[in-house]
Design goal:
The chain is of the alpha+beta class and about 170 residues long. About 45% of the residues lie in helices and about 20% in strands. It has seven helices and eight strands. Helix 5 (about 105-110) packs across helix 6 and helix 5 (about 105-110) runs parallel beside helix 7 (about 140-150). The longest helix has 23 residues, at about 1-25.
């Protein structure tokens, strides 16, 4: 029993590493979103931000982050250790980050499982291994969905202004 739990843990960790590496490598052609904790005016908040936008702000704060390896290491460590990145409100605006809030409806939908969650909130194409978020949802709900997708290791991008999941089977998928 302990061996099965250990194997499940290692597979999950391997997936999370693979996921974070993929998101943090996205700069030009595929721009993925990530969720990070930030300290702004001594208040910790979770924000949704494009990796490329966060990277640009980090490079302007400290030239050490011009080195992509050092940037990836720092941000990945902050996410894994549940640490927060120190930013000021101007930097938050410059990177177009959005502060996240929990939504009870999204939490309830997620509790029913990934497949039910996707069927509830997305237009899903199994044929093309792709899902597009219903654009008629309220902003708070959309952002809470993005947070859940990040927690579940789903790649998140925008296509023509709509949030989408380009690879439903990434890291085990739906």
């Amino acid at each position: 029993m302990i061996n099965i739990l250990l194997i499940a843990f290692l597979i999950t960790q391997n997936c999370r590493d693979k996921y974070l590496d993929r998101v943090l490598e996205s700069e030009s052609s595929a721009k993925f979103f990530l969720v990070v904790k930030v300290n702004i005016d001594k208040k910790e908040k979770e924000v949704l931000v494009l990796n490329d936008d966060l990277h640009n702000v980090m490079k302007s704060k400290d030239s050490v982050y011009n080195n992509m390896g050092k940037y990836k290491y720092y941000v990945k460590n902050m996410i894994e250790q549940k640490g927060a990145i120190d930013l000021d409100s101007g930097e938050l605006v410059r990177m177009n980050a959005v502060v996240l809030q929990e939504d009870r409806k999204v939490v309830a939908a997620a509790a029913r499982g990934k497949k039910a969650f996707f069927n509830h909130y997305f237009y899903v194409s199994k044929k093309y291994n792709y899902a597009r978020l219903n654009p008629h949802l309220k902003q708070k709900e959309r952002l809470a969905i993005m947070k859940k997708l990040f927690d579940w290791n789903f790649l998140i991008e925008t296509v023509e202004g709509d949030f989408s999941v380009p690879e439903l089977d990434f890291c085990g998928g739906v």
